[in-house]
Amino acid sequence: MRDGKQVRDEEFRRFMTGHWPRLMRTAFLLTGERHAAEDLAQSTMERVYAAWRRVGSADDPEAYVRRVMINTHARRHRRKLREFLASRDDSDLVDEVADIDDRMAQVDDRRALLEALGHLPARQREAVVLRYWADLTETQTAEAMGCSVGTVKSNAAKGITKLRALPVLGDAVLQRGRK
């Protein structure tokens, strides 16, 4: 007969296996780099494993894990993404993005999109990523970000407006439209 710890470990393993690709996709969009995304997703799962009894019994464990990821990211990545992008040679970034199975894989100029996301403040970036790439509802996004639905709407709208106004993204969209 299996004891409670073995049962919890098995539940955690099933959860992690089933949700890992989605967690990686969200982590990648939050961090902008594959290796940083792997670190973020692993750190998130470490925290979740330590609290699995609480997480597994939550009404929506996936929402709980997203919240842990957002909090972990906020603590670990206070440095602006644009500084990160400016400080490295990102010529291989397009190849790194192609390895991640997500909706961005359909975008022809992934580097332009990542660069544009890097221009957003952290809260706007989180709102845009969770709403439009992770495809969460406003309520789910608000829960993950720890704020009100109105704040999500405001940050997402401001973020989208700012993305539309950025020349780097506008040029990429125009070039795709001409092809």
Automatic annotation (TrEMBL):
Signal peptide: none annotated. Coiled coil: none annotated. Residues 19-80 form the RNA polymerase sigma-70 region domain. The keyword Cell wall biogenesis/degradation does not apply. Gene3D superfamilies: 1.10.1740.10, Winged helix-like DNA-binding domain superfamily/Winged helix DNA-binding domain. SUPFAM superfamilies: Sigma2 domain of RNA polymerase sigma factors (SSF88946), Sigma3 and sigma4 domains of RNA polymerase sigma factors (SSF88659). Keywords: DNA-binding, Sigma factor, Transcription, Transcription regulation. The keyword DNA-binding applies. It comes from the Bacteria. Residues 110-163 form the RNA polymerase sigma factor 70 region 4 type domain. Belongs to the sigma-70 factor family. ECF subfamily. This is SigE family RNA polymerase sigma factor. It comes from Streptomyces kaempferi. The lineage of its organism: Bacteria, Bacillati, Actinomycetota, Actinomycetes, Kitasatosporales.
